[in-house]
Amino acid sequence: MKTMPSLKLIPALLFLLVPGLVQAEYRDFTDQQGRTMNAELINVMGDQVRLKRSDGAVFNVDPSVFCPEDQEIIRVWMLTTLSQRDALLKINAKAAGTTPKSIEGVEGVDVEQWDGYYRVDLENTSDTSLENIEIRYCFLAFHMKVAADKRREGKTEIVKGSLTIPSIKPRDDFSFDTIKADMMNTALQKGYVWADGGKDDSKDKLDGIWIRLYYQGHFISEWSSPSSMKEKYDWAKLYK
Fold first, then answer.
1. Which of 97, 168, 179, 217 gets the most CB atoms within 10 Å of its CB?
2. The pLDDT of residue 106
3. The predicted structure's pLDDT at residue 23
4. pLDDT digits (tens, 9 = 90+) for 44-101
């Protein structure tokens, strides 16, 4: 039986904002004609907001009646409020990969390379059009050590990316693929063993994804799979 030296074929590593809540409070809102009123944002009603004026009057209004600056303030508040109610976006992500391709040149070892990524699906569950939403994500690609004694021996690569969604209409959806990570599988050929022992094969895998949504730089929402990623890791350290 032929003895193989321990090989290290692990692929090279590829290589924010703290969430803040937008709280409603009484403030002066200015309309397109320059008229002002002192009011508080109290609810989201479809694509409108409900305001409570300082004199006690309550009414619904389309944000477009206000000046551009106030429209942005209202927009951030609407998106954050809907997100807190789980009424903004439904997010799902599934691990995926390209078909593995064999590479030559390593005696006694079958080596396959493939690209790992996530397929992300977003569904707008609100009654408002979502425009210019920035998505920032990071996912974990685990590269198992070749000839490892245990399956969890190896290195974890942090892969990050971002994109801006032009628009998702109410009750519509949007899907995208993340950037790809270089992945690898190995298996000893028949008649070979590792000189220092270890498992006959190694398999890389995707270990989780964390997604955050922003509007005009304001944190709106987040989602992760598994959900424990948000407790186990620090976003600022992952996405740096």
1. 168
2. 78
3. 53
4. 999 999 999 999 999 999 999 999 999 999 999 999 999 999 999 999 999 999 999 9
CB neighbour list of residue 55: distance below 8 Å, 6 or more residues apart: none
Q: What is the DSSP letter of 126?
A: S
User: Which CATH number do you get for residue 92?
Assistant: 2.60.40.10
Give yes or no: residues 66 and 112 share one domain: no
Q: What is the identity of the amino acid at 161? A: G
Quote the longest CA-to-CA distance of the chain.
Answer: 90
Residues 94 and 66 in one domain: no
The whole-angstrom separation of Cα 240 and Cα 221 is: 19
pTM: 0.85
Tokens at 54, concatenated: 């300082």
Amino acid in position 184: M
Could you tell me if 118 and 178 are in contact, meaning their C-beta atoms sit under 8 angstroms apart?
yes
- What is the separation of C-alpha 98 from the centre of its chain, rounded to a whole number of angstroms? 20
What is the layout of strands, in order, in the sheet containing 27-30? Answer: 27-30, 36-45, 48-53, 58-61
Instruction: Find, among 122, 113, 120, 118, the residue nearest to 96 by Cα.
Output: 118
| Alpha carbon distance 196, 18 (integer Å) | 46
Contact between residue 150 and residue 169 where contact means Cβ atoms under 8 Å apart: no
Per the CB < 8 A criterion, the answer to whether 133 and 164 are in contact is: yes
